[in-house]
Amino acid sequence: MFEGLPNEYDIIVVGTGIVESILAAACARIGKTVLHIDTNEYYGSEWSSFTLNGLTEWIQTQENPVTNINPQDDNERIMPIGNPLNVFRNIQLKWNIEKTNEQSSTTENDTPKITLDVLEKQSRKFNIDLTPKLYYATGGLIDLLIQSNVGKYCEFKLVSRLLLENNGQLDNVPSSRADIFNSNNISLIDKRLLMKVIMNCSSMAIEDLNEDENIPFIEYLKKQKLNDTLCHLIINSISLVDYNATTKEGIIKAKRYLDSIGRYGNSPFLYPLYGNGEMSQCFCRLCAVFGGTYFLRFPLAGFTIDSLTNQCSGIVATTGERFRAKDAVICNNSFMESISSNKNVIHRTVLFTNQSIKSSEKDEITYVRLSSPNEFGIHIIEVGSGSGCIPDGFFLLYIFQEKPQENINQIVERLLNLTGDNFTRANILGQLTFDQVETLSTSISSPVLKLLLTHGPDGSIDHDGAVNTARNIFHQIYSNGEEFLARAPDPEDIVIEDDGNTNDTSTTNTNTENENL
Amino acid sequence: MSVHGQVKIRTSAEQKAARERERAEKLQLYLTQYQSILNNRYLLDSFQLLKQTENVLIDHPDCFTLWNIRRESILKLNDDQQKEYLEKELQTTQICLKSNAKSYSCWYQRQWVLKLLKDKFNLNLYQNELQLCKKYLEYDERNFHCWAYRYYLLERLCPSSSSSSSDLESFYENELSFLRSTIGVNLSNYSAWHYRSKYLDKLLDHNPSRRSSLLSNEWQLVLNAFYTDCSDQAAWFYARWLLFKQIGIEFINEDEHIKPLEELDNIEPGNKWCMLALSQLWKGKNIKNDKRIIYLEQLANQIDSDRAQFYRDQI
């Protein structure tokens, strides 16, 4: 199984989630030898996107016995991995449609009802995110993609429609000057007050807040004479914070939102074409371009620890084969045994529907945030076929909460009340629910030296924190001024130069090459 | 990786040098071609000149002399050929516009072509041109060349005064609604407001009975604009035209026109546009108001001292 694979590297990375992939790319970029492995047969770990059949397989293969390996000598200790499949719990997939149409083939109905096998035939057109996220146009991840030139490996679509709850229905979020001008729901004076607050949030320096910094954001907004509706607009749909957030938090996040509008269009968010799974993959691609070695379905048993120095020296496969890492082993903390006792979870839901929650003439990617003074934010993302994630005529509706509070049925009920006759329970063809262990806030400190732990996502809508985590870990390993993901060169600037002997016969050159080897 | 070659990545100095070399080559080529055309201007026939000038203009669309030569060449052709080449000219200019969407020469050439084709009026042609304008306005909604061209097209497409009055009215209204949606995308679009004033004028002339309702709606639109963004001058200029040139002083009333501005002034003290508008309105309606002089002085001395004399003249 391991023929031809070298046993020694500068860095070994375990797991192909976003933080690990950024790190693998960054290390390969500065010339380090990298072995990047994953126990799954797909890239992305918790960030993967699955086809419809892939999703069914994933649900079924949630079993993985842990192998015990004996240390090879007294200087070595083995730390086995925990069951990484502990990350996802309580997975349930329920379809509201028939498997096939055979039973009802002779009815008077003109249009055949949708059946599961019709969807399964188009399985490849699905890209279902385990971890749906949106990307701020001026946020850390997009900036990193641009700055490192990794952006050329992926494409994005604008999240074209931002909605909020207003008077029992879903309305557009007015956040730009044009939106506010065209809105018929806001009085003239309120338009002025709202624009004033928005312009202020954009242009002010945080230091100017002084004493206001720590007062609740809602109080600060009331001081600007905004009514309840407008306060809710800003807290819920522009700053995307909870009602107990401080003014400082509210303004920082509002700035990020407002700065991101206009960069690529009239919305601050981007969504990756073909789903979030693409994000890890493009960093892995860069790593491979710079010489990184990839091994999926790696039969990982655990980590080898040097008993004398208590430093992690590498990894060991279930066959006993060992791979050494000179500088460090980077590992997603979901591989640690302690994960199984972790109680913090994110409740995730994916609804398969055949109607958009709000009709539109064109293909949209929609984001709705629901909240109120006493609850944490609920994120809802809807993608249609334009995102490359689902066949024409169908939609994926992702629902998750910042912190687990309400149960999914209550949330779906609430959504159905807002969508009216246009979208009803009959439009929900299937429902996938699962719990994802939240590893970001659980600060698992690494039990040994030279084993650096990364983390998965939390319940928020963006994941720009991933870049800072990756950068910090990178500088922990390489602290002598190495650049973190310097810009990769453009193809035009790569020149293949001859040794100067352009007209010489090939034999002469080959001999020279051989001598140099 | 080739056995003989080595991979090298250009440094930024080398990138710059490579770019400079490219530019120098391009310039040399242009000068050679240009000179050759001028030398042979009276020696070559129309077809050859048209072909040669086209090659140069595609990359360098702003060369006025070459367009001149093209016009000369086309005029020398006989009627049938001329029509064919005039229509081809539309395609050529379209390609050239890709290099520079704001090229005076290209837009002028298109107008020239349409003027010559005028007698052979072709509705499809004009509709295509309108579509082109729409596309270019999507790229840059403030391309004034495109706006002027669009205005010219609409003049030609406008139903004549002998056709039914409702045709003409809906024509104007369609345009006003297009302009409204353009302003809806970006309310700073000065061109859109400007052409709105022209079409409103035409509509009012055509149907004076709708005067008060049209003007009332227009006032609401412009109020909406400066309540949304009180520092945007396009809306204020339009408001000034609307109030003083269209509505007229006798029809300006306190409730509809002056009160909303006073309210805005309360929320946004120190806004020069609002202060000026109020000063002019109070004077126009003979409203005795101490604030008027105070505002004008503030404007002259502090807020907009560049135009101090303008404000002092009004005191």
From TrEMBL, chain A:
Subcellular location: Cytoplasm
Pfam families assigned to the protein according to its UniProt record, in alphabetical order: GDI
Keywords for this protein: Cytoplasm, GTPase activation
Coiled coil residues, start to end: none
Role description: Substrate-binding subunit (component A) of the Rab geranylgeranyltransferase (GGTase) complex. Binds unprenylated Rab proteins and presents the substrate peptide to the catalytic component B. The component A is thought to be regenerated by transferring its prenylated Rab back to the donor membrane.
Main subcellular location: cytoplasm
One GO MF term: GTPase activator activity
Ranges where the record places region Disordered: 494-517
Name used for this protein in its record: Rab proteins geranylgeranyltransferase component A
Family in the record: Belongs to the Rab GDI family.
GO cellular component terms, A-Z: cytosol; nucleus; Rab-protein geranylgeranyltransferase complex
Automatic annotation (TrEMBL), chain B:
InterPro entries, alphabetized: Prenyl_trans_a
Protein's GO biological process: prenylation
Keyword Repeat: yes
Keyword annotations from UniProtKB, A to Z: Prenyltransferase, Repeat, Transferase
Reactions performed catalytically: geranylgeranyl diphosphate + L-cysteinyl-[protein] = S-geranylgeranyl-L-cysteinyl-[protein] + diphosphate
Taxonomic superkingdom: Eukaryota
The EC number(s) this enzyme carries: 2.5.1.60
EC primary class: transferase
Signal peptide region: none
Keyword Transferase recorded: yes
Gene Ontology molecular function, alphabetical: Rab geranylgeranyltransferase activity
GO cellular component assignments: Rab-protein geranylgeranyltransferase complex
Recorded family membership: Belongs to the protein prenyltransferase subunit alpha family.
Function text: Catalyzes the transfer of a geranyl-geranyl moiety from geranyl-geranyl pyrophosphate to cysteines occuring in specific C-terminal amino acid sequences.
Protein name (Swiss-Prot/TrEMBL): Geranylgeranyl transferase type-2 subunit alpha
